[in-house]
Amino acid sequence: MNASTTGPSLAAQIANLPKLPMSELWALWDKYFPRRPPHHNRNYVEGRLAYKIQEEALGTKLEVQTQMARIGEAQSKIKTQRGVEVQVVPGTVLVREFDNREHRVTAQADGSFEYEGRRFKSLSGVARHITGTQWSGPLFFGITKTKRGGK
What we know:
Blueprint: H1 3-6, H2 10-16, H3 22-32, H4 42-58, H5 61-73, E1 76-79, E2 85-88, E3 93-98, E4 101-107, E5 113-115, E6 118-120, H6 123-131, H7 137-140
Antiparallel strand pairs: 1-2, 3-4, 4-5, 5-6
Helix pairs in contact: 3-4
């Protein structure tokens, strides 16, 4: 497959809008909208076209919201010792240096964590495996939220 058969990427299409002459922007406008706007502000036209191009490539607002909701449901929720809930997006890699070695843990979509090819139910399980002692996983990996004095 080559670029001539697939066309420019979504990012390239959006990035190219400011470079187009107004006549080409209006041609694109006519493709996406039934009538032209009452004002001819270039930034407005580019912004609306960028939105429509993305909507066509990625789906409607409702479809995107539904997809984002599914992604949100897949996030891992971790409770810290202070009871503060921290969310870790699947695919996030947590890195900690311990005992002169770098340790990398990857959050999984099912809420588990992968470390050196093994799955763990919690970050605390990973921390215990690495150190040999009982640890708070969020504390060990530095993702705890501290409470600050309010102003």
